[in-house]
């Protein structure tokens, strides 16, 4: 924690509402002096992750509240003119957000975790570590919003972005050089469930450029099923809107950083932009995360059953638990399970539309990770912003159906889906 005796170098006060030092010094001052408040007491013993999810430490609460209170306040009063205390301004630090971040550090097993307003603002904060002349190697099958932000960066900043097939090690190797700043990965990709070899790419990237940071968007797996930092990555981030919160009732982003110096720079950026998660949303995310292990376990179990049934009906299913998945082994070497998102093709766009529209239990919605099961047609919904010719290049078929499996009784989910598939064999005109 920052010493509160030196208000000038005590970083988390550096860009609060009432600047405690001149604006330029904020820009040029080394971010090393910047730190954010952390919970002073962390449990020493590592528990199993499912247990860690429900054990939220809140040692500084004067009333021993069972759930972390919402500190809905922008400012904190000082006890004296010179002692700023642990918190002064919520953009820089807030006890509810700190409790969430401490909790995330345990679950993600990282040096420092940060909670931001959305998954995209988490990525934005990370990307601001790059400077002019740097190069970024990114997948060619990324989340649409990620693509959009990278396009902005390469258009307006002097930063090169190479989109390569990151499931192909040779393609990654060919783009690596001493200017590589980031290698940005998603695994499994969404919605095709393609797998990247995170350990091999991390080793290659660090060998080609020791200062390169390997960043993984781990939203599809959640911290419970895959730990990217242990696999060799430097930063992992999540859309907290998905599995972490689990109820589609809030937006959030989460960043886990391996190295303390990198973490200081990320905090400097989050504090400077002001994209830290609000106290109320921090409370909601903390509450959602208590059931993360339970939800993931049930969602994944349901997803495995659904994948087997859909495959048994003769469809080509993309899901890394299936023997038919070409990278099943690679995925299993990195993650504890296949997750709860799968996709399949029907061979006919109209048939796919009929299936999606005939489902009663599966809600037609973008996003995933919710307790409720969702069905979508990525090319017409979440991935519609990708031009048709690029979708074709990436083998993203128009008839692709994505299933995001929830916690309902699997029998009901399967009954509903099978009924929709059966009814889809009759075209609309004949019904
Ligand atoms: C949803 C999502 C994001 C963006 O997160 P938001 O919280 O919507 O900003 C990024 N990556 C993946 C893989 C996602 O699914």
From TrEMBL:
Annotated Polar residues bias: 1-14
Cited Pfam families: Cys_Met_Meta_PP (PF01053)
Keyword Lyase: yes
Chemical reaction(s) catalysed: L,L-cystathionine + H2O = L-homocysteine + pyruvate + NH4(+); an S-substituted L-cysteine + H2O = a thiol + pyruvate + NH4(+)
E.C. number: 4.4.1.13
Cofactor: pyridoxal 5'-phosphate
Broadest EC class assigned to this enzyme: lyase
Family to which this protein belongs: Belongs to the trans-sulfuration enzymes family.
Protein name as annotated: Cystathionine beta-lyase
Organism of origin: Chytriomyces confervae
Name of encoding gene: CCO45
């Amino acid at each position: 924690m920052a010493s509160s005796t030196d208000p000038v170098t005590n970083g988390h006060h550096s860009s609060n509402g009432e600047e405690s030092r001149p604006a330029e010094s904020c820009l040029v001052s080394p971010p090393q002096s910047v730190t954010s408040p952390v919970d002073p007491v962390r449990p020493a013993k590592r528990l199993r992750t499912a247990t860690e999810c429900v054990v939220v430490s809140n040692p500084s609460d004067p009333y021993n509240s069972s759930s972390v209170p919402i500190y809905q306040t922008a400012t904190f009063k000082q006890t004296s003119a010179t002692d700023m205390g642990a918190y002064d301004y919520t953009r820089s630090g807030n006890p509810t957000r700190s409790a969430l971040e401490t909790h995330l550090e345990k679950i993600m097993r990282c040096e420092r975790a940060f909670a931001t307003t959305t998954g995209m603002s988490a990525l934005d904060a990370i990307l601001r570590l790059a400077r002019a002349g740097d190069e970024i190697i990114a997948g060619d099958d990324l989340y649409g919003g990620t693509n959009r932000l990278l396009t902005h960066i390469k258009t307006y900043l002097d930063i090169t972005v190479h989109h390569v097939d990151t499931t192909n090690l040779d393609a990654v190797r060919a783009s690596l050089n001493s200017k590589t700043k980031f290698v940005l990965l998603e695994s499994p990709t969404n919605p095709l469930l393609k797998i990247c070899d995170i350990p091999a790419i991390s080793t290659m990237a660090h060998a080609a450029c020791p200062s390169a940071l390997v960043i993984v968007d781990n939203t599809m797996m959640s911290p419970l099923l895959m730990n990217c930092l242990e696999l060799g990555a430097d930063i992992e981030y999540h859309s907290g809107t998905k599995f972490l919160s689990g109820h589609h009732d809030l937006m959030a982003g989460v960043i886990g950083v391996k190295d303390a110096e990198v973490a200081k720079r990320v905090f400097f950026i989050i504090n400077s932009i002001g994209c830290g998660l609000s106290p109320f949303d921090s409370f909601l995310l903390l509450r959602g995360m208590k059931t993360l292990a339970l939800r993931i376990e049930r969602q994944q179990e349901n997803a495995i059953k659904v994948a087997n049934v859909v495959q048994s009906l003769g469809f080509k299913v993309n899901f890394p638990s299936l023997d038919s998945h070409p990278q099943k082994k690679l995925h299993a070497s990195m993650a504890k399970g296949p997750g709860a998102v799968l996709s399949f093709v029907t061979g006919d766009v109209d048939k796919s539309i009929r299936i999606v529209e005939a489902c009663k239990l599966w809600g037609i919605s973008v996003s995933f990770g919710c307790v409720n099961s969702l069905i979508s047609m990525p090319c017409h919904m979440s991935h519609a912003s990708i031009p048709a010719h690029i979708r074709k290049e990436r083998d993203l078929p128009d008839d692709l159906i994505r299933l995001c499996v929830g916690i309902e009784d699997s029998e009901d989910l399967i009954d509903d889906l099978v009924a929709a598939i059966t009814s889809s064999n009759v075209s609309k005109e004949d019904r």
